[in-house]
Amino acid sequence: MRTPIIAGNWKMNNTIAATKALVTELIPLVKDAKAEVVICTPYTDLATAVELTKGTNIKVGAENVHWAEKGAFTGEISADMLVELGVTYVIIGHSERRQYFGETDQTVNARVKAALAKGLKPIICVGETLEEREGGKVEEVLVRQTTEAFKDIAKEDLENIVVAYEPVWAIGTGKTATAEVANDTIKIIRDTIGKLYCPKCAEEKVRIQYGGSMNPKNVKELMAMPEIDGGLIGGASLKAPDFSLVVNY
Question: What residues are labeled active site?
Answer without folding.
Answer: 94, 166
